[in-house]
Amino acid sequence: MVEVQPIETAKEIGHKALKGSKWVFLSSVLSKSFQFITTVILARLLLPADFGIIAIAQIIIGVVSLFQDMGMTQALIQKKENIEESADTVFLFNIFWSLILYIAVFIAAQYIGAFFGNNEAVTVLRVLCLSFLFQPFNIISNALMKKEFYFKRLFNITLWPAIFSSLASIILAYFGFGVWALVLGILTGNLLNAVFAWLSISWRPAFKFNMGIVKDMLNFGGAISMQNVIIWFENTFDDILVGRWLGTPLLGVYRLGYNIAIIPASQIAGPINDVVYSTFVKLQDNKADLKRFFLYIIKYVSLITFPVGAFLFTASGILVTTVLGEKWSESIQVIQFVSVYGTIGSITFVIPTLCRAVGKPELFLRYLIILLFVTVPVFVYAVPYGLKAISFVHFAMAILFLPYNLSIGMHLLDIRKSEIMNALRASIIISIVLGVFIYIAIYLLQFSYLINLLIIVISSAFLYAVLLYLISKDTFAEFLKFVKISLSKKV
């Protein structure tokens, strides 16, 4: 059993957070880099329509997955007592509930395929939803390890399934399996992830079920689940519109471009969310420490994500042409506009995490409801104008709602606007300079696309280091210290 540790000091919690960040970040960098390379290879081997069919299935899987967990994982991480009995109860509940959800999706698949006008999506969805049955063996193990900062173990059980999943997809695509290369690759990764997670801890269910615990955890997780449903709908409604009215091939183009554009939020900031949540939970009784950690996170995350966002915005044309090929050219403007949304999301991700950790998820829920009522009609209006218009909505809404989003965290922790700007100052300046530099470099360089891209990437990395040192030597030194501590072998 993963043991619950005694009460720790803020310094000890901070040290654990740094160590956790190390393993989470390494896992993200390695697995996501491998997956990105895989996506590039598959984009060369498969058609946009193949990616579109998978996108249809993932729309449904995404929303059903929200109801599968119902906030219980977060509730288990936050729970301070009766950990073992709660874990047993959640496990048994998930076994029963996952089977119900699989049957429901299996039956509904034919109607979903008819809605999108794609019969092949029916069988794909029914097969992919087998992953629901793996989740109960994964959810509890992950929650218990995250609760106690055992992120090194999570590193191992995340990395290897991602690698085997990618290899399976590439091999099958090469031999002409089409969309099924993606389906079987995803299933392989999900199955291995569940097996590795189950074997990584000593906890095993005692098959004790307490309905009172279920009710308590659903009460906590209810607001979180509602948040997640609204977030899913706000993030996926555009996919539904594109798939239904613009067609499966354009949905494949849009989804691939979108996934690249949100790299700052999904692949850099997103993976450390578990560490941030666990740290917020540990510090929830000390507002001063919470405030320091909040500002620390947005400062150092933005130092990475803002420059990446600037690169994606300015270099999307040469990136798509060189890496993906001409058949994906319609994704260029998707990447440009959505990259701004992804970059802003790389710092605002801490807001819902903070609200959950301090037991006030309703604050962020209110924001999401307002956002939903604004974005849905705008998306409906934009879809007839194509992918560019849909992508611009993400761009506009991210900027329009940023002040309100940040104000939630500022109110909870008594943070002034000047403190937020001070934390982001270096990131903003560096990103603007890098964006201008990349734009000029693309205009001046006259080599092949590949050589131009390599020159831009290498020179931008060098310029980034120089700018960070010149703008703030203290921040440069702190950043190096952060990297040194994170990569040290001492626990």
Give an overview in words.
- This protein has 491 residues and is an all-alpha fold.
- The chain has one domain.
- Helix content is 84%, strand content 0%.
- The protein is built from 20 helices and no strands.
- The chain starts with 9 loop residues before the first helix and ends with a helix.
- 44% of the residues are buried.
- Mean pLDDT is 84; it is low at 1-7.
Summarize the structure.
The protein has 491 residues and is an all-alpha fold. It contains 20 helices and no strands.
What attributes characterize this protein structure?
about 500 residues; mainly alpha; 20 helices; about 85% helix; globular; disordered N terminus
Stretches with pLDDT under 50, minimum 5 residues: 1-7
In what range is the share of β-strand residues? Answer: under 5%
The separation of the N and C termini measures: 20 Å
Shape: globular
Number of domains: 1
Q: What is the radius of gyration computed over CA atoms, rounded to a whole number of angstroms? A: 22 Å
The biggest sheet, with number of strands, parallel, antiparallel or mixed sense and barrel status, is: none
Number of H- or I-type helical stretches? 20
How would you spell out the order of helices and strands?
HHHHHHHHHHHHHHHHHHHH
Strand tally, please?
Answer: 0
Structural class: mainly alpha
Could you tell me the mean pLDDT?
A: 84
Helix content: over 70%
